[in-house]
Prior knowledge:
Number of strands: 15
Strand content: 5-15%
Oligomer: single chain
Amino acid sequence: MSLLRLALFLAFSRQGHSFVAVRSSFLLGLRFDLRYVAILELILLLIGCFGGVKFFGSRAGRRLTLGFTGIAAFLVVFFYSVDLAHYSYLSQRLNASVLNYLSDAGISANMVWQTYPVFRMLLLLFAGVWGILWIMRRIYDQIARKEAFPGGGRREKRSRIGWFVLTFLLLGLAVFGRIGQYPLRWSDAFGLGSDYQANLSLNPFQSFFSSLRYRHSSYDGEKVRAAVPALAPYYGWDSMAPPVKAGGLPAGIFDREVAPRQGADVLRSRPNVVVVICESFSAYKSSMWGNPLNTTPFFNELCRKGIFFDRCFTPSYGTARGVWAVVTGIPDVASATTTSSRNPAAVDQHTIINDFTGYDKYYFLGGSTSWANIRGLLTDNIRDLHLYEQENYTAPKVDVWGISDKNLFLEANKVLKKQQGPFFAVIQTADNHRPYTIPAEDRQAFQPVTFSAEELRHNGFESNDEMNAFRYTDFSYRTFIEAASKEAYFDNTVFLFVGDHGIPGDAAALFPKAWTDQRLTAEHVPMLIYAPKLLEPRRISRECSQVDVLPTLAGLCNLTYRNTTLGRDLLDTARYGGKEMAFIYDPDQFYIGVVKGDYFYRRQMKTGKEEIVSVTGNDPVPAGVTTGPLMRQMEQVSEGLYEASRYMLLMNKKKSPAEGKKSR
C-alpha cells in the first residue's frame, strides 16, 4: 500500500511538491494503511483463537488462511486499480461518489472501455493478486514448518494468552489510529496544508468508506429559517420571516417577482437566447488568463467582443451538478454518492426558462440525456421542450459521448436557423472529456500540436491528448459562431457560454497558491455573454456563479420573471452592486465556502475546521481578517447558502401554467 502511494506520487501531477514536502502525507498515510491491515489481522487472530481452527496444522486450515488472504489481496488490488483510474480522471482518491456511475452503467462502461487499457488493467489485477498469494504461500509454508518442528517444546498456555493479548492490543491501536480520546479520521488528512497532500495521504478504503455515510439528503427547517436574515441583504428576502412551525417554513418564503429593470443593456427586441454549457472549461487552462499554450485563441477573441466575467465559479464539481445549477439556480448540495438530478424527490423544479413566454425551447446534447437522469430534469420542468439527442442527428457517433461537438453545433444551427419566432436553446458539449476523441473527419481542418511533458505539466495539462481536446473545443466554438453568423437569427441572438465545471490541478504558474491548494481550479470557469450587434463589450471582475445565468438572461431580455432560488441578475448593479459572492460546495471532501472579494472562506462540515485564504496573492491573511467580522460574515453566508440550497432542492416546486399566470 505504501508502494502504491509512492506510485501515485510519481505517476501523477505533484503540483509543485517535492518528496521532502510530502513526508507528512506518507507518514499519515502509513497510519491509514495500518488500520486496514490490522482489521484483516484481527479477523484472523480471532478466528484462530476462538474458532477452533488450526491454521497451520491441517489442510482445511491452509485453505481457509490462503483463501481469506486471497480475498483480501483481490480487494486491495481491485480498490487500488479503480483508485488510480479515479485519480487520473478526477484528481481525487476513490470515494463513494463513484457509485453515481452505476446509475448510468452502460455509458460509464463504454467510457471506461474507450479511455482505459481494460485488458492490461485486468491482467495487472490478476498478476497482482497472484503475486501477493505467491508471497503468502511462501510465508505460510515457512511458518507451518516451524509449527511442525517447534524445537523448543510445547509453548505454555500462559505464554500464548500473553502473546494474544499483546497482539490484540497492538492491532486495536492500529485500527484506532492514535493514542487519545478520538480515533484517526479521514478529516485529519485535510490538516496537512493542501488538498493534494490530503489526497496523497488517504487510501481508497479510507476515502470510500468514509464518504458512504453522506448519501442521504434532507433539510433542517430551523437552520433554513436562521439562514434568511443572513442572506436577506444579498437577495432582498424578508428577514423577518415567521417562525418555523411543525409543518416547516411558510410556502414561498424565497419567492420574489422580478420586474424589468432599466439600463442601456436591457434589450427590447425579444432576442433569441443560446446557452452553451461547456464541458470541463477550466479557466486556468484557457487563453483568457494568459496560458502560454494558447489553447483557446478564438474564444479569447470572443471574450474581447462580449461581456466577459472572469471570476465565475461553479457551485460544485461535476457535469450533472453544473447542469442542475444552470437550469434550476440551486447549488447541487446532494451527498457525494449521488446528484440531485438522480433524486426522485427533487425531480419537480421551477426554472426561469419557463418565464421566456412565447419562446420555443430547445436542448441539444450529442449523446443521451438518460445520463444522470438529465432527461427527467429537463422534460419534467421545461414546458414544451424540443429535446435533441444522438438519434435525432444525421452526424455519426464518434465515442461514448455521441456525436462530436463540432457536429453538435452544426446540427443545432440547422434547427435554429429555421425558426420564425424567438427561441431559447441550450447546447451541452462533451468532447473536452476522456477519451479525448478528435474525429478523423476534422484531422485536416484541426491540426493537433505537441508539447513536452514539462511544458504540459507547467501549464496545467497531463497529456497532449488532453491539451488537444481542449483546443478542439475552441475549434468547435469557432465553427459554430462562423456558421451562425451567416444566418438571419444571429444579429438578434444573445449567446451565453459557461463552463460546467473546472479541472483540479496545478495553476501555480498563473494564479496564487490558494487556487491550487484549496482546489478553486475545480470550480473556476469562464462565463461570456456574446451579442456583438446588441451589447457593448467589457470585462467584469466580480464574483458570480452558474446559478446567476438565468436571472441575468431574463433581466437582459426585459422579462418579468419569478425567481425562487439563488441566482441574481449580474447586470443589475443598482440592486446587487457590492454584494457579489460565489458559493462553493465540495461533496467529496464535505466542505462549504464562499469566494468574496480578496478571500476564500471554507469550513469542513464534519470537523468544523475553518480557514480563510487570499485569492489575490500569496501573502498570509492579516490577523484582523482571520478573527474579524469579515470571516464571521463569510461563515454565516456559507452556512446560509448551504441550508437554503438543501431546502430548495426538495421544495422548489414549479407552478402549473395556470398558477403562474394567476400569480402575475
